[in-house]
Design brief:
Elements (H helix, E strand, L loop, with lengths): L2 H4 L4 E9 L8 H5 L6 E8 L6 H9 L9 E2 L2 E2 L6 E4 L2 H16 L10 E4 L3 E3 L7 H4 L1 H20 L4
Parallel strand pairs: 5-6
Antiparallel strand pairs: 1-2, 1-7, 3-4
InterPro entries: Met_Sox_Rdtase_MsrA_dom, Met_Sox_Rdtase_MsrA_sf
GO molecular function: L-methionine:thioredoxin-disulfide S-oxidoreductase activity; peptide-methionine (S)-S-oxide reductase activity
Keywords: Oxidoreductase
C-alpha cells in the first residue's frame, strides 16, 4: 500500500506498520502469526491543501478488494483485512460517504466489507519492511503488483 501513495503531490510520508491490535510494539512475526490482533496498515502524512482526504480515500479503493474481508489478493488472514482508520468525525464522514457511493455504484457483485474504524496506536514495521517496493522491486512486482494489477484492470477499467 505504500507505492500507490508514496510519490503523489502532497504526500509527506508513508510508513508501513501495524494498528488496531492489543499488543504494544508488535513484531511482523507476531502480527503474521495472528497473535496480536493488529492489521497491517500504512500511516499517511499529507498536506490537505495539496491532497484532499477525499482523494486519498478514492485512491485507497483502487488498491484493495473491498469485498474480501479476510485478506487482499495473495495476502491472506485477518491482519490483511480491508479497513480505513479515520482520525476524527470529518474523516469518518468522508470515508463512510465514499464507501456508500462505492456500494451503490454496482461495481461489485458482493457487498463492500471494508470497515471504517477510529485510529488506534500505530507501530511502525521493522526497517526491512519499510519501502518494500523500492528495496525489492522484482519481488514486489511478482508478489504484490501482479494480483493487484489484475484486480484493478478487471474492476476499475471503466473509470480510466
Amino acid at each position: 500500500m505504500v507505492q500507490p501513495f508514496d510519490s503523489l503531490p502532497g504526500i509527506k510520508q508513508v510508513i508501513s506498520g501495524y494498528t488496531g491490535g492489543h499488543t504494544v510494539n508488535p513484531t511482523y512475526d507476531e502480527v503474521k502469526a495472528h497473535k496480536t490482533g493488529h492489521t497491517e496498515a500504512v500511516k499517511i502524512t499529507f498536506d490537505p491543501d495539496v491532497m484532499s482526504y477525499e482523494k486519498l480515500v478514492e485512491i485507497y479503493w483502487h488498491q484493495t478488494d473491498p469485498t474480501d474481508a479476510m485478506g487482499q489478493f495473495q495476502d491472506r488472514g485477518d491482519n490483511y483485512r480491508p479497513v480505513i482508520f479515520v482520525n476524527g468525525a470529518q474523516q469518518r464522514q468522508i470515508a463512510e460517504k465514499s464507501r456508500a457511493k462505492l456500494a451503490a455504484s454496482g461495481e461489485f457483485d458482493q457487498p463492500i466489507v471494508t470497515k471504517i474504524e477510529d485510529v488506534a496506536p500505530f507501530y511502525p514495521a521493522e526497517k526491512e519492511h519499510q519501502d518494500f517496493y523500492r528495496k525489492n522491486p522484482e519481488k514486489y512486482k511478482l508478489q504484490e503488483a501482479g494480483g493487484r494489477e489484475n484486480f484493478i484492470q478487471s474492476h476499475w477499467e471503466k473509470e480510466n
